[in-house]
Amino acid sequence: TELRTGTSFRFGSQESACWRLGNIKDNDVAVAEAVAASAAYPVFFPAIDRDFNFKKNEECETKRAILSDGGIYENLGVSCLLPGRNPRYSSNVFNLDYIISCNAGYGMFDGKSVPFDIVTRLKQTAETTMRKAQDSVMKDLHHYKTSGKIKGFILPYLGQQDKSLPLFWPDFVTRDEINYPTNFRPMKEKDLHRLSTRGEQLTRLLLDYYCPEL
């Protein structure tokens, strides 16, 4: 998210851009910078503040960009992949048959928390707003699938309720095994392995069930 303009900032292997500022010239940006910007959760970490050489309308100009967590704008990150976008006005435009978006969220609220004080109320308000935006994107994906504009999509997320899965594999990493709080402390190697394994297992499982042709 580019905070000065309130618009999305897309990093990609072919181009990195913000439609208000332009494309970064020669895509001269490190992967580490993209990761740092993505991890700049507003409450805890400072935004990435730096100048880039942007190219727009055949003109190059150095402009300042202030980048923060992409979830502020759109947490699933699929809006740049949806059909009907014009490369004249949007960056990272591709004609795709399938969309796979892995959600690292916690799943549905269990209703056990009591967001009463100012901090918990603000946190719950932000998460509720983000979830509503995600619901809109998921509705769009279903529409594009039904209308034939894409062949299929899957949205595996780490907080998936295991009982709702259509299949279950041996040695499956369960939700309870990775259900620990986000406290911004260094993660143990075994926890990283569990998270990545669950993400891969969920993706493969849902592909097998909903997109067997792949």
TrEMBL record:
Keywords: Lipid metabolism. The keyword Lipid metabolism applies. Residues 18-78 form the PNPLA domain. GO terms for biological process: lipid metabolic process. It holds the Pfam family Patatin. This is PNPLA domain-containing protein.
